[in-house]
Amino acid sequence: MKKPWLFPAFLLLIFFSCTEEEKPATTPKGILPMDSTALVLRDIHELESALMVSSIRQDSTQNLYRALEPDIFRKYKLDTGRLNRSLRYYSSEPYLLDSLYHVVLKKTDSTAVFQP
Fold first, then answer.
1. Backbone angles phi and psi of 88, in degrees to 5
2. For the whole model, what pTM was predicted?
3. Which of 25, 72, 90, 102 has the greatest count of CB atoms below 10 A from its CB?
4. Which tens digits make up the pLDDT trace of 57-107?
5. CB of 101 within 8 A of CB of 47?
């Protein structure tokens, strides 16, 4: 005996099992909000890219990066531990990390030059 309801039931099961996970409404305590994390990452990536395209030797750019990186943390009144915890939180779920970098890209001006 044929069961005509079996195929539509199977399709519904697949459809609902493939839906996106529910996103948390707020970030946990001690984690930077996504917009703030995106601003910090934007500045870090802009500094890295400015040094990468400069004509300075690699060992000198590494020293210069270490000298300028604290300016970014001071600008946002932030320490490396809190940024690292926030990055671990956002990278724990692919959709959070993807969302974070979409915000970073929106906040990035392709003509900007890093200015601490």
1. -65, -40
2. 0.70
3. 90
4. 878 888 898 999 999 999 999 999 999 999 999 999 999 999 999 999 998
5. no
